[in-house]
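User: I'm putting together notes for a lab meeting next week and I want to include a structural view of one of the chains we've been expressing. I don't have a solved structure, so I'd like a prediction I can at least talk through. The sequence is below, exactly as it appears in our construct file.
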Amino acid sequence: MRFVEFALEAPDAKSVRLAASFNGFDPASLSLTREGKGPWQTLVPLPPGRYEYAFEVDGRWLPDPDGPAGGRRAGKPVSVKVVR
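Assistant: Thanks for the context. Below is the predicted structure for the 84-residue chain, given as structure tokens.
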């Protein structure tokens, strides 16, 4: 198990959530936080594997602009993160 960081620069956002294969793509289950004007971020304990994810920024779906593309999930673009 490793703690994996998910982070997003979204200075004007009011809320950022994480929808991922490890949480059933339910963005309501995992909110990111930020300190001051820094990036939105969270640490998630994950076993090794391949995980698809996207952010929900103020209700809008957004794949990670800094992460590798992972295809589509339910017609929406996702990013992929591999945990070793």
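A couple of points you could mention at the meeting. Residues 25 and 80 are 13 Å apart (CA to CA). The chain has one domain: 2-83.

User: Perfect, that's what I needed.
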